Amino acid sequence: MNRSTTNKDRRLYDVIVLGAGPTGENVAERTRAAGLSTVIVENELLGGECSYWACEPSKALLRPVLARADARRVPGLRRAVAGPLDVAAVLDHRDEIVFHWQDDNQVGWLDSVSVDLIRGHGRLDGPRQVAVRTPDGDTVLLTARHVVALCTGTGAAVPDIPGLDAVRPWTSREATSADRVPGRLAVVGGGVVAVEMATAWQALGSQVTMLVRGDAGLLPRMEPFAGRLVADALREAGVDIRFGASVASVAREDGDVRATLADGGELAVDEVLFATGRAPRTADLGLETIGLTPGTWLAVDDTCRVTAVADGWLYAVGDVNHRALLTHQGKYQARMAGDAIGARAKGEQADETTWGAHVATADVAAVPQVVFTDPEVAAVGLTTREAERAGRRVEVVDYDLAHVAGAHQYADGYRGQARMLVDTDRGTVVGVTFVGPGVGELLYSATVAVVSEAPLQRLWHAVPAFPTISEVWLRLLETYRDRHPPGRS
Length: 489
Ligand SMILES: Cc1cc2nc3c(=O)[nH]c(=O)nc-3n(C[C@H](O)[C@H](O)[C@H](O)COP(=O)(O)OP(=O)(O)OC[C@H]3O[C@@H](n4cnc5c(N)ncnc54)[C@H](O)[C@@H]3O)c2cc1C
Ligand SMILES: NC(=O)c1ccc[n+]([C@@H]2O[C@H](COP(=O)([O-])OP(=O)(O)OC[C@H]3O[C@@H](n4cnc5c(N)ncnc54)[C@H](O)[C@@H]3O)[C@@H](O)[C@H]2O)c1
What we know:
With 489 residues, the protein is α/β, with parallel strands linked by helices. The chain has helices at residues 3-6, 22-33, 48-53, 55-72, 87-97, 104-112, 164-167, 172-177, 192-204, 224-236, 327-345, 362-365, 384-389, 405-410, 443-452, 456-459, 472-483, and strands at residues 8-18, 38-42, 116-119, 121-124, 129-133, 139-150, 154-156, 184-188, 207-212, 240-243, 247-253, 256-261, 266-269, 271-274, 278-280, 314-316, 369-371, 376-381, 394-400, 417-423, 428-436. Nicotinamide-adenine-dinucleotide is lined by residues 159, 188-194, 196, 213, 220, 275-278, 325-326, 369-372. Residues 367-473 form the Pyridine nucleotide-disulphide oxidoreductase dimerisation domain. Keywords: FAD, Flavoprotein, NAD, Oxidoreductase. InterPro entries: Class-I_Pyr_Nuc-Dis_Oxidored, FAD/NAD-bd_sf, FAD/NAD-binding_dom, FAD/NAD-linked_Rdtase_dimer_sf, Pyr_nuc-diS_OxRdtase, Pyr_nucl-diS_OxRdtase_dimer.
């Protein structure tokens, strides 16, 4: 007997959320807070990629690496931290941070906000309809009175290279959950996952080789000096970085992974990590039942409503809409979209004005990101290249962080760089990039400056404490002022 066709359970909710990553959880919390009955469907672990195979475990691996690097730059402390990392302790701590890949804590939280949970794989089955295949083979049919919110995130995108399946390469999942250190690790890609994981595994004992296609350098979406400073530091740490290196094929022979490069070169390693970007988890979501194409990113308006669907019942929030693939942006979108859903369900107009209560304006104007390498990279708003492409009139203000008193205190021989982009028409800050040890915690100040569109004249009154690295703000303002003395047109 086929239980899936006989054991059907039908339920009605105001809101159905597919995917209980950080985004889905926050959508559900907001729609519930608006008084809407809400169910969330999850087919792996509550907390999503971020909690178990992305942000949390990667930062648990990186924190000791960065803390040790910082300590080694403090006179009087260097010798105390000269030894290798305690790898077993680092991996144990990582396991604790991810709750040993158990989600009981999150289940308690969901209960506390009165959101129902159905475990299983959800698929759309026509407008406002969702069919959930549960782990025991039953099907639960859900109907949404108001909204279905797709928050299904992304998985690793791996290129179609001959031999790849047989090699069983690492993706971000293995790179964040591995329980032993490969002797030799190849990292394909030069983006954020690649640089963070190269930093972590090199420090944990692997000999890391980075294979980076093209000549755009590392972190190609950021200011070029960020990738240069990170590359310099990775090389000093012993990483072999090969630019212009494309992998043509891979094979596993006698336990080794052998990568053949497009230029004919070869590399033998114990594991290969493909850190080559993300793909939306929309291939098996039933998109075809509502006229959309499976496997595609879902384009949305600023309230996260899917633009290609009529009647406004479908939202796509977080990574899956491709606006900004970051946990904090997904949660921000979730707050805005969840409140918009609540308002619309009451028959009210959503506030869609720029920076309004129901729109994710920051996705296009002020996305903050910290890359947890040594040195850290912290950036928000436009880069110089993005400003040029958008035809924005900006002035670039650079400052060497090594000249800031707080940086001297922070580390002997501090190396770092800061860039501020000033909108010359409006006299406001539209982009900031900091590179250097400890700059991650400076980023919120830059985010507030960009989001508040505070005139530079007012920022002079935001006095940074002496002697902190945040005095770089004063130096950036002075640099700009000295180029534009009063009275000079
Ligand atoms: C290695 C790595 C490190 C990262 N580090 C950071 C960082 O430091 N800071 C940061 O801001 N971002 C970081 N990110 C990005 C961050 O992980 C994502 O932006 C974030 O997880 C997106 O959240 P989400 O809820 O949209 O999707 P996800 O976290 O992917 O969650 C989606 C959920 O939906 C579930 N699901 C999918 N399809 C279905 C279905 N059909 N039915 C039921 N459930 C389904 C999945 O099982 C999953 O639980 C990192 C990413 C990687 C890969
Ligand atoms: N600290 C953080 O905030 C953090 C950390 C990790 C990941 N993330 C987010 O997760 C997302 C995914 O990160 P990612 O590093 O996987 O993607 P990415 O898009 O940042 O980088 C992908 C890299 O792979 C390269 N690449 C793509 N296809 C390739 C191919 N076929 N062969 C060789 N190289 C190829 C690209 O040129 C690029 O260098 C990003 O949007 C990032 O913001 C954030």
